[in-house]
# Entry
Amino acid sequence: MNVQAKPSAVTTGPIRGSRKIYVSPPGRPDIQVPFREVAPTPAANEPPVRLYDTSGPYTDPAARIDLEAGLPPLRAPWLEAAGVEPGGAHRPRSGPSSAARPLARRPRLRDGGRPRSSPHCPRGELRAPWLDARGFETVEGRAVRPEDNGASGDRLLPPCPAPHKVRRGRPDQLVTQLEFARAGIITEEMVYVAHRENLGRLAAAEEAARRRADGEDFGAAIPEFVTPEFVRAEIAAGRAIIPANINHPELEPMIIGRNFLVKVNANIGNSAVSSSAAEEVEKMVWAIRWGADTVMDLSTGRNIHNIRGWILRNSPVPIGTVPIYQALEKVGGDPVKLDWEVFKDTLIEQAEQGVDYFTIHAGVRLAYIPLTARRTTGIVSRGGSIMARWCLAHHKENFLFERFDEICDIMRRYDVSFSLGDGLRPGSIADANDAAQFAELETLGELTRIAWAKGCQVMIEGPGHVPMHKIKVNVEKQLALCGEAPFYTLGPVIPDIAPAYDHITSATGAAMIGWFGTAMLCYVTPKEHLGLPNREDVKAGVIAYRIAAHAADLAKGHPLAQARDDALSRARFDFRWEDQFNLSLDPDTACAYHDETLPKDAHKVAHFCSMCGPKFCSMQITQDLRAEAERLAGLAAKSEEFRARGGALYVPEAAPAEKP
Amino acid sequence: MNVQAKPSAVTTGPIRGSRKIYVSPPGRPDIQVPFREVAPTPAANEPPVRLYDTSGPYTDPAARIDLEAGLPPLRAPWLEAAGVEPGGAHRPRSGPSSAARPLARRPRLRDGGRPRSSPHCPRGELRAPWLDARGFETVEGRAVRPEDNGASGDRLLPPCPAPHKVRRGRPDQLVTQLEFARAGIITEEMVYVAHRENLGRLAAAEEAARRRADGEDFGAAIPEFVTPEFVRAEIAAGRAIIPANINHPELEPMIIGRNFLVKVNANIGNSAVSSSAAEEVEKMVWAIRWGADTVMDLSTGRNIHNIRGWILRNSPVPIGTVPIYQALEKVGGDPVKLDWEVFKDTLIEQAEQGVDYFTIHAGVRLAYIPLTARRTTGIVSRGGSIMARWCLAHHKENFLFERFDEICDIMRRYDVSFSLGDGLRPGSIADANDAAQFAELETLGELTRIAWAKGCQVMIEGPGHVPMHKIKVNVEKQLALCGEAPFYTLGPVIPDIAPAYDHITSATGAAMIGWFGTAMLCYVTPKEHLGLPNREDVKAGVIAYRIAAHAADLAKGHPLAQARDDALSRARFDFRWEDQFNLSLDPDTACAYHDETLPKDAHKVAHFCSMCGPKFCSMQITQDLRAEAERLAGLAAKSEEFRARGGALYVPEAAPAEKP
# Structure
């Protein structure tokens, strides 16, 4: 694989022990939401376990994968159907019933601050006319220029030949999910994510599946059952986003918000000294195979435009970027030479390609830079340091801040979501929660309100390196300052002393910050601080963060989260080894570890593993115990009696000090 | 390596980039406490960083390692010197000054619940006569029997030939650290651990080194500087233990308690289907190399006595065991055949060998067993399930509970500490914090008071599998029910769904429970639930748990913990790559990961890594910024002015909704 390598093959095929299924929401056979289903061994007499699935068509044996053709543009019909009228009124498709529906309706969901289950969208009404029909116009789009791919010269990677129409919303048209949500309109994306978050449960099946787990959600409001209307209301309130550029029709929509499942982002991207396009596309496919909900392409160096094209046309998950990286390449790598025109050009270039969210470091204000002067590790955000350099060189306010309204106007026309960058995040625990960090957060709160006023979806990036006792206040401040816009944190790393293990140091911080209310966790790989992650590092990072996100869901009391744990634990207790592997986050590795010491097929049904051996297997002994169920029942009665009598101990508490 | 393999070689040599040093407490040149010291590159002009070191003589290039001879018995002079008189009075070695010292003095350390720094033991007084002199008698000891090594037959491993005298305390003699502490006597072990916890700081250097970090310690009382008297008082109060069998003179003493550094235990041990003695000794040496503070030998199967001998004679850290495992081997593996005599015999056998702490599952009471009947995963503790089986088969109360006072009497005579086993800990998050678990914990609290009355040191084992929101109450209940006896938890694993990654799932829970007050964390390896860990798994588990323990120390506000993070972060910011590697928990892997993409020596001083490349290195850009220090100083003044004026934003908050 060399730098110019054109992507050809990626990892495909089902994840061990599961099959891909597609489930449609009631009344919407045209919307097909993907899941994975694990069927326990028949003898177990257990229902299949349905899992949230980020892996896209790559794990569907029926899908034909052709990277040059790109993925099927499943959102295209939703984006193209004409229907929404200028000014926000929508053209009904079937009768006038919807005309009576107030467009700017904002249902009152909050009841003493705690919304309950909100079945505002009962069955049968789902295929209502206000659901779709956006009719975005296609435009010619900006022509690709040589500098878009850096100084690639004869090492230019060919562009991805997949067909791509460029769409652009008009100023007088509803474009963003936020605008539709505020107008009371439920988009297909909203229907899709509601069904996805419910793991495909139907409203009718709700009762059976809901088992409200206990939990502490710190003021979040996770519903028992997610309705499309709930999704709409959360987006309208700014508490959730669906990052979904109208130029990324290949996307399988997902939602990011505190009242939904905690999500995971994986960063990929080459750097000037390492990696290639083929590697990066495979890293994307590999990352989503193991559970990345979104992927950020942080490529720098050569071929940046074309690599992004290959990734976008083949990505079923939202793609985020940091446009200032490419802008910097366009001015030869000198931050001082950056200006609004090159940045604006880059925004349009990437928005037309279909990037779903942009990290914008508009909070790195000139006045905050001196606050970093005495830090242990200064500024560790690449974008933050670039903007700080620019500000100081020109002694001017950050142009991203100065031009923020214009940035909003551009991003709104494609529904590119904001990921407001934390350019001043701490890079060591010594710098955690300092004046620079929180000054910027305050500014991000102000920018959030501006972006919302402009109709843009917004999430907020967070730290970084934070010791455990300083994590919670980060969430509290973010929620308060940024109006509950979704928080999207990098880690945090909780001690600094473990380079090569920062997927672990940070997954711990991530589990906690996710529990406290972070909506999406940006992974950290074992190579963080040391080098560019390879494919195995990407997997290690994603798995560590799936653990963190799931742990957060459990602790928040997500109603469906524990079902998978319980199914796996039952399999473990029953010695259904294959079921245990298949229900795990990484069946391949679980099986391989088991087989290291007990490789034979017979061992897959053995009632022990090599950890304790047959005689010392506590679970086998406990199973033996259960065989005495009759007797146990009798004992239970005795136990009650014993406890009712106060369960007095035979040994007096003050025993004699010595005994011969 | 086969099952009979006699240990021959283990991993030796310094840990990359550090040197072994020994530091004596003031006035005690005979006590030499080991540390590792990392000296940053001279150009950095940074002081050396002294690290707590569990690795024993194996990392000392000057030490001669001979597994057949065992480690030098450094505690022998302390244990042998005659001096403590029957009845607890001690024989002064130098003058009568100590006679005035009240023996049962318990200094009032608490001041509104929060002890301050307690310099009760000023310099110069340290070499006081009450420090040492125990004069334990040596006895012939129990003869080794064939069944001690199971049915080894011709596969019998030769015993470790290292010389070993069996010591036993008399009933009328002070034996345990708790007894000495209560008598107001500071043992050499207490002096040793105080110096060790201070990282060898001298009282005189205290001022300079103390930098009370901020933190939230949930009622712990971590002193700025640890004096031997503070150690004594904590042990006397039962809040800390020094597991140190008088038959384990090779031990480098360490302390386990909430007001000291959080410790890590690594489990090793063969099982009937896997591993050998040579492997287990190497696993012990390997585990302490990476930071295990204690090691539990959980061997079952053949050669169990002789493997333990090899481990003990070569272990500088406390060794724990679960004696019921060997007792079960002695009765042919059938729990029903267990009885008090075989168990008592096993206690004496192991106590004479030098085991420092025993897990005793005395809390698995007959009446609690039915409480596990409806659990998802029943009883998952091996010892717990064995005792449950016995109780039900005989329909009798657990004989460990019935005979608890006799067990205390035996353990006291060797100063074997109790690790009161949580035989009913949850094995899945579904079973966390249930009636069975907490019923047992209540009993463990009652047993703690009995053991204390008998003069025994005690710690309490804890779960297991617990979702994040249910962790804290475990510590709160344990502290309340068990009189603040040190808590020693296994994980907890916070979701069940990641077999093969349970070092990560559980390190997260461990970091949290350590923060809340757990004194020692029992590691979990990637092989947990799947098979017997190999050497690499042991390392992965230890490193993950060192991360957790250190994160807990930081969050609790341990005064010295952050020094290492800060030194590493400064090295990172200065691009001192070698220093960054050397200060990390695993210098070998950190360096290897860096070198994967940038292997040349020149890259070790490069101001970038392959993650971002030279142009995008935020830290390099920030360093450039700092070069403009003069200018920054001016800006700082402006920033103040700006903030004083209210830092008004240029953009009006309610921006127009659209812009052409």
Summary: Confidence is low (pLDDT under 50) at residues 83-132, 648-660 of chain A. The first strand of chain A starts at residue 19 and ends at 23. The CA atoms of residues 141 and 205 of chain A lie 46 Å apart.
